[in-house]
């Protein structure tokens, strides 16, 4: 509080008026301590009181104040505080809301802070990399972080000098996230990833440019490249360096997302995708609900539940065939997902036939029954990319012959043991 | 998924399952799975078997309750399916004998008045399969049984030790059973 009192006194001193510090302090104390007024409000109120007392026109006082009172970004410490800043626009972000005209980062030699310019502020457009003098901005707090807000009372003046930004240049190219192994990624971080695009998925939403799987020697992860990222398309089987991607968790699964500050660089090297193709051998012991003839949302391709998409509500679904099954080796189990093409092949059943069957029986369950009948209890070897607890099956082969060599080997091995025991 | 995992379906020959009488269950939790520990140390909750369905009978009084007998090279399994296993019950009702069938199910035990433990199977699924699948299962089960026998002889893990302690398992006897099963495959050539 002493500090505030002193700063008020200093401001009046500049006008040639010596206000007793005790007077200021006692007024501040009354407001802050007794009447629980926020300190910035108290400061303003006390200042106004003395302006009135000494008959100083408010306008004069504040315009005079505006020039010298520059705040450094590092010193921003209070929600609701007004400040004047000299800063460089280090980054402009995509606008997320119609009432916002510009949003991004400002920096000076002491630090970097987010700024938001409201549409109704009607200010000239800021350019990335340029430096400005911002008068009368308001400090706001959001999610525990301070940010600068430019509103109607704010004025902007472009500077010729270039403001140095502390902590280096924060343009996306320079601020590069650490290169990480895919298996080491965890949610809520930025990262740079080197990998091979192992699978591209059918685009499920107009706001998504591309989605699929990318893998490196340590694993495979889902990626989403948002249309708004304005990044080039990637091709299946090619290798890329994805810089500054966001890693997050959705539904318990880690995935990466490319946005406007990310970049894609094609690489010449061929990255070995480790453990991306898993192979599993076992008996098919279960085919789960949601298999067989299903309907998918035409928008997002998700399977419909009772004719409704969890995202888009009631929609006219598109038919598809798929199998969610469990393979079992006797000591472990593996969930697998089989797509339409392989399902058709395995069950000897085309999608059209399946639709006709279901229509005939007035029950899509008959398709599932047929698939179960064909598959459950048989031994299969599957290969595919491992994703979460599933293997997304690329190939599935039924075991078609008895391994005679293994049989003989086991018999002779068993024989030796039995003989040993007899001896 | 924490807190949930799917029980692997064990591979055990009929003779070995018949010899089993050690059950375990976490008593504090009524939903805890029940296990049968077999003489070679297989801790069985779910089981997968392929064999020949040789008998079936509706033993239900009010509603249908089917009992099927599935044989393998060493003996036979009893499979019971009622109203809570509608697909399996329907299969048993409709199928013709004999037939190669693949059964996935849970073991359940019943202790008779004179202390014998009878182990039967409550099927989750029964499907008709071909002879090849049956032979593959015999080979698979032989292999896994041999691995368990080896573990018992080496007293490798908890289950092996426990099984040996309880049954004083004669591994030679089970090797003999495996041999019999494997030889039955040879004869079919």
TrEMBL record, chain A:
The keyword DNA-binding applies. It comes from the Archaea. InterPro entries: NA-bd_OB-fold, SOSS-B. The keyword DNA-binding applies. One of its GO terms (biological process) is response to ionizing radiation. Keywords: DNA-binding. NCBIfam families: PRK07217.1. This is Replication protein A. It comes from Methanosarcina spelaei.
TrEMBL record, chain B:
It comes from Methanosarcina spelaei. This is DNA-binding protein. Keywords: DNA-binding. The lineage of its organism: Archaea, Methanobacteriati, Methanobacteriota, Stenosarchaea group, Methanomicrobia. The keyword DNA-binding applies. GO terms for molecular function: DNA binding.
């Amino acid at each position: 509080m002493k500090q505030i009192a002193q700063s008020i006194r200093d401001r009046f001193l500049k006008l040639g008026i010596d206000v007793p510090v005790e007077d200021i302090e006692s007024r501040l104390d009354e407001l802050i301590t007794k009447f629980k007024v926020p300190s910035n409000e108290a400061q303003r109120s006390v200042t106004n009181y003395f302006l009135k007392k000494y008959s100083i026109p408010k306008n004069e006082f504040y315009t005079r104040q505006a020039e010298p009172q520059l705040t450094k970004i590092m010193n921003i410490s209070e929600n609701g505080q007004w400040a004047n800043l000299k800063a460089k626009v280090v980054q402009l972000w995509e606008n997320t809301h119609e009432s916002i005209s510009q949003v991004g980062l400002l920096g000076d030699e002491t630090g970097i802070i987010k700024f938001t310019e409201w549409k109704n502020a009607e200010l000239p457009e800021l350019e990335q990399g340029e430096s400005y003098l911002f008068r009368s901005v308001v400090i706001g707090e959001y999610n525990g972080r301070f940010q600068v807000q430019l509103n109607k009372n704010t004025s902007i003046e472009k500077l010729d000098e270039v403001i140095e930004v502390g902590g280096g240049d924060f343009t996306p190219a320079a601020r590069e996230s650490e290169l990480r192994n895919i298996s080491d990624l965890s949610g809520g971080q930025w990262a740079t990833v080197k990998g091979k695009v192992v699978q591209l998925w059918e685009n499920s939403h107009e706001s998504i440019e591309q989605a699929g799987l990318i893998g490196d020697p340590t694993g495979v992860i889902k990626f989403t490249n948002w249309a708004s990222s304005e990044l080039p398309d990637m091709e299946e089987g090619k290798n890329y360096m994805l810089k500054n991607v966001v890693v997050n968790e959705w539904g318990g699964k880690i995935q990466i997302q490319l946005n406007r500050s990310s970049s894609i660089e094609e690489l010449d090297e061929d990255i070995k995708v480790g453990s991306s193709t898993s192979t599993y051998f076992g008996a098919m012991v279960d085919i789960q609900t949601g298999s067989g003839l299903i309907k998918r949302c035409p928008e997002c391709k998700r399977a419909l539940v009772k004719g409704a998409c969890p995202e888009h509500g009631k929609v006219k679904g598109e038919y598809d065939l798929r199998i969610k099954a469990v393979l079992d080796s006797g000591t472990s189990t593996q969930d697998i997902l089989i797509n339409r093409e392989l399902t058709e092949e395995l069950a000897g059943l085309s999608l059209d036939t399946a639709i006709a069957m279901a229509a005939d029986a007035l029950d899509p369950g008959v398709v599932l029954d047929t698939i179960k009948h064909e598959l459950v209890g048989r031994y299969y070897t599957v290969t595919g990319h491992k994703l979460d607890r599933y293997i997304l099956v690329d190939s599935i082969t039924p075991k078609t012959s008895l391994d005679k060599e293994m049989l003989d080997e086991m018999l002779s091995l068993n024989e030796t043991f039995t003989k040993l025991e007899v001896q | 998924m924490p807190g949930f995992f799917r029980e692997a379906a064990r591979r055990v020959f009929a003779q070995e399952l018949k010899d089993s009488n050690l059950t375990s269950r976490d008593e504090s939790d009524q939903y805890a799975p029940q296990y049968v520990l077999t003489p070679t140390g297989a801790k069985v909750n779910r089981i997968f078997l392929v064999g020949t369905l040789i008998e079936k009978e509706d033993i239900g009084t009010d509603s249908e309750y089917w009992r099927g007998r599935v044989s393998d090279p060493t003996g036979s399994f009893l499979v019971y399916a009622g109203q809570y296993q509608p697909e399996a019950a329907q299969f048993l009702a409709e199928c013709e004998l004999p037939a190669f069938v693949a059964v996935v199910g849970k073991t359940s035990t019943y202790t008779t008045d004179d202390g014998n433990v009878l182990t039967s199977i409550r099927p989750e699924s029964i499907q008709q399969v071909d002879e090849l699948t049956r032979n593959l299962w015999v080979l698979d089960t032989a292999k896994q049984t041999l691995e368990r026998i080896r573990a018992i002889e080496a007293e490798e893990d908890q289950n092996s030790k426990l099984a040996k302690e309880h049954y004083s398992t004669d591994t030679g006897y089970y090797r003999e059973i495996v041999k019999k099963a494997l030889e039955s495959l040879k004869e079919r050539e």
